[in-house]
Design goal:
Layout (H helix, E strand, L loop, with lengths): L1 H18 L4 H16 L2 H6 L7 H16 L4 H11 L1 H16 L3 H19 L2 E9 L2 E9 H8 L7 H11 L6 E7 L7 E7 L1
Antiparallel strand pairs: 1-2, 2-4, 3-4
Helix pairs in contact: 1-2, 1-4, 1-5, 2-4, 4-5
Amino acid sequence: MDKTVKQYAKLYGGAIKRKGLAGVKEKMQAYAARLEKMYASEQFKAHDVYPSIDTKKVYAVICMCLMLKEYGLSKDEIIDTVNDSFRKLKKAFWCVEKVIDVFPSAWNVAKKWNINDHQNRVADGSITYDYFNVDDNSVSYSISHCKYVDMFDDFGIKEYCKIFCMSDTQAYANLTRHVNFVRHSDLTDGDCCRDEISKK
Protein backbone atom coordinates (compact mmCIF):
# COMPACT_ATOMS: atom_id res chain seq x y z
CA MET A 1 0.00 0.00 0.00
CA ASP A 2 2.90 2.34 0.79
CA LYS A 3 4.17 1.92 -2.77
CA THR A 4 0.73 2.77 -4.14
CA VAL A 5 0.47 5.91 -2.01
CA LYS A 6 3.90 7.07 -3.19
CA GLN A 7 2.96 6.41 -6.82
CA TYR A 8 -0.18 8.53 -6.66
CA ALA A 9 1.52 11.23 -4.57
CA LYS A 10 4.15 11.56 -7.29
CA LEU A 11 1.49 11.90 -10.01
CA TYR A 12 -0.35 14.47 -7.89
CA GLY A 13 2.84 16.39 -7.18
CA GLY A 14 3.70 16.64 -10.86
CA ALA A 15 0.23 17.98 -11.69
CA ILE A 16 0.13 20.64 -8.98
CA LYS A 17 3.65 21.72 -9.90
CA ARG A 18 2.59 22.21 -13.53
CA LYS A 19 -0.48 24.02 -12.22
CA GLY A 20 1.82 26.48 -10.45
CA LEU A 21 0.74 25.82 -6.86
CA ALA A 22 3.19 26.80 -4.14
CA GLY A 23 4.65 24.40 -1.57
CA VAL A 24 4.53 21.32 -3.78
CA LYS A 25 6.58 19.13 -1.43
CA GLU A 26 4.38 19.94 1.57
CA LYS A 27 1.22 19.43 -0.46
CA MET A 28 2.48 16.04 -1.69
CA GLN A 29 3.19 14.98 1.90
CA ALA A 30 -0.26 16.12 3.03
CA TYR A 31 -1.84 14.22 0.13
CA ALA A 32 0.10 11.04 0.91
CA ALA A 33 -0.86 11.19 4.60
CA ARG A 34 -4.52 11.69 3.79
CA LEU A 35 -4.62 8.95 1.16
CA GLU A 36 -2.93 6.51 3.54
CA LYS A 37 -5.65 7.16 6.13
CA MET A 38 -8.34 6.75 3.48
CA TYR A 39 -6.91 3.38 2.43
CA ALA A 40 -6.88 2.23 6.08
CA SER A 41 -10.50 3.22 6.67
CA GLU A 42 -13.50 0.93 7.09
CA GLN A 43 -15.13 2.89 4.28
CA PHE A 44 -12.40 1.78 1.87
CA LYS A 45 -12.85 -1.85 2.92
CA ALA A 46 -16.58 -1.57 2.27
CA HIS A 47 -15.98 -0.09 -1.19
CA ASP A 48 -13.11 -2.38 -2.20
CA VAL A 49 -15.28 -5.39 -3.06
CA TYR A 50 -15.79 -4.96 -6.82
CA PRO A 51 -13.16 -6.75 -8.96
CA SER A 52 -13.93 -4.58 -12.00
CA ILE A 53 -13.16 -1.35 -10.09
CA ASP A 54 -9.64 -0.24 -9.16
CA THR A 55 -10.75 1.17 -5.82
CA LYS A 56 -7.24 2.34 -4.93
CA LYS A 57 -7.24 4.53 -8.04
CA VAL A 58 -10.74 5.83 -7.34
CA TYR A 59 -9.73 6.81 -3.81
CA ALA A 60 -6.52 8.41 -5.10
CA VAL A 61 -8.60 10.60 -7.41
CA ILE A 62 -11.11 11.39 -4.66
CA CYS A 63 -8.23 12.43 -2.41
CA MET A 64 -6.84 14.70 -5.13
CA CYS A 65 -10.23 16.36 -5.53
CA LEU A 66 -10.65 16.89 -1.80
CA MET A 67 -7.19 18.41 -1.43
CA LEU A 68 -7.56 20.69 -4.45
CA LYS A 69 -10.97 21.87 -3.21
CA GLU A 70 -9.34 22.91 0.06
CA TYR A 71 -6.78 24.92 -1.91
CA GLY A 72 -9.59 26.92 -3.50
CA LEU A 73 -9.48 25.62 -7.06
CA SER A 74 -12.68 25.73 -9.13
CA LYS A 75 -14.43 22.57 -10.29
CA ASP A 76 -13.05 22.89 -13.82
CA GLU A 77 -9.54 23.54 -12.51
CA ILE A 78 -9.74 20.49 -10.26
CA ILE A 79 -10.92 18.22 -13.07
CA ASP A 80 -8.20 19.52 -15.40
CA THR A 81 -5.50 19.11 -12.74
CA VAL A 82 -6.55 15.56 -11.86
CA ASN A 83 -6.67 14.59 -15.53
CA ASP A 84 -3.24 16.14 -15.98
CA SER A 85 -1.85 13.96 -13.19
CA PHE A 86 -2.58 10.89 -15.33
CA ARG A 87 -1.45 12.44 -18.62
CA LYS A 88 1.39 9.99 -19.31
CA LEU A 89 -0.81 6.95 -18.71
CA LYS A 90 -3.57 8.44 -20.85
CA LYS A 91 -1.12 9.28 -23.62
CA ALA A 92 0.11 5.67 -23.78
CA PHE A 93 -3.47 4.40 -24.00
CA TRP A 94 -4.37 6.97 -26.65
CA CYS A 95 -1.40 5.88 -28.77
CA VAL A 96 -2.70 2.30 -28.73
CA GLU A 97 -6.14 3.56 -29.72
CA LYS A 98 -4.73 5.58 -32.60
CA VAL A 99 -3.21 2.39 -34.00
CA ILE A 100 -6.48 0.49 -33.55
CA ASP A 101 -8.39 3.32 -35.24
CA VAL A 102 -6.48 2.79 -38.48
CA PHE A 103 -8.03 -0.62 -39.08
CA PRO A 104 -11.65 -1.53 -39.93
CA SER A 105 -11.58 -4.00 -37.04
CA ALA A 106 -11.73 -1.00 -34.67
CA TRP A 107 -15.49 -1.42 -34.47
CA ASN A 108 -15.19 -5.08 -33.46
CA VAL A 109 -12.66 -4.12 -30.80
CA ALA A 110 -14.94 -1.42 -29.39
CA LYS A 111 -17.93 -3.77 -29.45
CA LYS A 112 -15.98 -6.47 -27.62
CA TRP A 113 -14.77 -3.95 -25.01
CA ASN A 114 -18.36 -3.03 -24.24
CA ILE A 115 -19.62 -6.60 -24.09
CA ASN A 116 -16.79 -7.71 -21.79
CA ASP A 117 -17.19 -4.64 -19.57
CA HIS A 118 -20.91 -5.23 -19.27
CA GLN A 119 -20.37 -8.86 -18.30
CA ASN A 120 -17.80 -7.94 -15.64
CA ARG A 121 -19.91 -5.15 -14.17
CA VAL A 122 -23.03 -7.29 -13.97
CA ALA A 123 -21.06 -10.17 -12.45
CA ASP A 124 -19.72 -8.09 -9.54
CA GLY A 125 -22.73 -5.78 -9.16
CA SER A 126 -20.73 -2.56 -9.57
CA ILE A 127 -23.07 -1.15 -12.23
CA THR A 128 -26.83 -1.56 -12.68
CA TYR A 129 -28.08 -1.50 -16.28
CA ASP A 130 -31.65 -0.64 -17.20
CA TYR A 131 -30.87 -2.18 -20.58
CA PHE A 132 -27.88 -3.29 -22.64
CA ASN A 133 -28.57 -3.84 -26.32
CA VAL A 134 -26.13 -5.24 -28.87
CA ASP A 135 -26.41 -6.04 -32.56
CA ASP A 136 -23.95 -6.25 -35.46
CA ASN A 137 -23.68 -2.48 -35.86
CA SER A 138 -24.46 -0.93 -32.49
CA VAL A 139 -24.26 -1.07 -28.71
CA SER A 140 -26.56 0.98 -26.50
CA TYR A 141 -27.17 0.99 -22.78
CA SER A 142 -28.62 2.90 -19.88
CA ILE A 143 -27.13 2.77 -16.38
CA SER A 144 -29.21 3.72 -13.37
CA HIS A 145 -26.70 2.96 -10.60
CA CYS A 146 -22.90 3.10 -10.48
CA LYS A 147 -20.55 2.37 -7.58
CA TYR A 148 -18.02 4.87 -8.91
CA VAL A 149 -20.59 7.62 -8.37
CA ASP A 150 -21.50 6.19 -4.96
CA MET A 151 -17.89 6.40 -3.79
CA PHE A 152 -17.58 10.05 -4.77
CA ASP A 153 -21.02 10.79 -3.30
CA ASP A 154 -19.98 9.26 0.03
CA PHE A 155 -17.30 11.97 0.23
CA GLY A 156 -19.78 14.69 -0.75
CA ILE A 157 -18.23 15.31 -4.18
CA LYS A 158 -20.49 13.34 -6.52
CA GLU A 159 -20.00 15.85 -9.35
CA TYR A 160 -16.26 15.07 -9.50
CA CYS A 161 -16.93 11.50 -10.60
CA LYS A 162 -17.22 13.24 -13.98
CA ILE A 163 -13.45 12.56 -14.17
CA PHE A 164 -14.16 8.85 -14.61
CA CYS A 165 -17.19 9.44 -16.82
CA MET A 166 -14.99 11.52 -19.12
CA SER A 167 -12.66 8.57 -19.69
CA ASP A 168 -15.21 7.11 -22.13
CA THR A 169 -15.57 10.28 -24.18
CA GLN A 170 -11.80 10.71 -24.21
CA ALA A 171 -11.28 7.12 -25.35
CA TYR A 172 -13.79 7.28 -28.19
CA ALA A 173 -12.35 10.59 -29.34
CA ASN A 174 -9.46 8.49 -30.67
CA LEU A 175 -11.66 5.95 -32.45
CA THR A 176 -13.34 8.16 -35.03
CA ARG A 177 -12.80 6.38 -38.34
CA HIS A 178 -15.00 3.38 -37.73
CA VAL A 179 -16.81 4.09 -34.45
CA ASN A 180 -19.38 6.72 -33.49
CA PHE A 181 -19.97 7.48 -29.80
CA VAL A 182 -22.83 9.54 -28.37
CA ARG A 183 -23.23 10.24 -24.66
CA HIS A 184 -26.71 11.51 -23.88
CA SER A 185 -26.23 11.86 -20.11
CA ASP A 186 -24.25 10.61 -17.13
CA LEU A 187 -25.03 10.04 -13.46
CA THR A 188 -23.00 12.97 -12.12
CA ASP A 189 -25.66 15.42 -13.22
CA GLY A 190 -28.50 13.29 -14.59
CA ASP A 191 -30.70 10.36 -13.61
CA CYS A 192 -28.88 7.85 -15.83
CA CYS A 193 -25.79 7.24 -17.90
CA ARG A 194 -26.98 6.63 -21.46
CA ASP A 195 -24.63 5.95 -24.35
CA GLU A 196 -24.90 4.84 -27.96
CA ILE A 197 -21.92 3.33 -29.82
CA SER A 198 -22.30 2.44 -33.46
CA LYS A 199 -20.32 1.30 -36.46
CA LYS A 200 -19.59 3.96 -39.08
